[in-house]
Amino acid sequence: MNQANFSMEKIFTAKMVDPMEFSIAEAEKSQFSLIADAEADIFSNPWSEKDVADTADRGTVLAAVNGRNLLGYAIGISAAGEGEILRLGVLSEYRGIGLGRALLTFLTSSLYKSGAGVLFLEVRESNTPARALYLSCGFTECGRRKKYYSSPVEDAVIMSKLLKNPNT
Ligand SMILES: CC(C)(COP(=O)(O)OP(=O)(O)OC[C@H]1O[C@@H](n2cnc3c(N)ncnc32)[C@H](O)[C@@H]1OP(=O)(O)O)[C@@H](O)C(=O)NCCC(=O)NCCS
User: Phi/psi of residue 166, each to 5°?
Assistant: First the structure.
């Protein structure tokens, strides 16, 4: 199983507020319900536990944990040389300390190893934190889908990233 341990003190010294240790690994089946609970807290169109399980069968589901506590998660798929970031979420109380970046970096690396040469994702136009994260991780805007989202209705910004090396 892929696993990475991150030390907040070593990696995120600039933003260190309350140092804590966390690990990121492929989610266990027993964690799918926790991810679905987090989805319900975070998104207006949440994935169910079944959605998570179905995608785990053909893609990658990552969980960031501290002990038994789920802090965040990332879900993606790779097929025919293309990868897609499907979901990325950090529980609100753990935002702003580097978890989103760590999850996205780990998922990018996993999808690259699965054969993806390019990654795509969609993000709400108004989602400033996520768009800033993706830009800072090397994604660029490559298109728009008008009124793609509901609750509330909003355009999707499509972003992509060419993968030359994992973690770049
Ligand atoms: C988007 C999200 C995953 C970011 O997770 P996070 O753990 O808070 O992000 P990080 O602490 O790793 O921050 C990484 C970068 O994201 C950007 N960012 C994070 N929060 C931000 C904010 N409130 N405003 C602007 N930029 C922000 C910054 O570029 C930041 O880099 P910096 O710290 O060097 O400035 C998190 O806010 C979240 O779960 N949001 C709700 C779900 C969501 O929108 N998912 C994406 C759907 S496409």
Answer: -60, 145
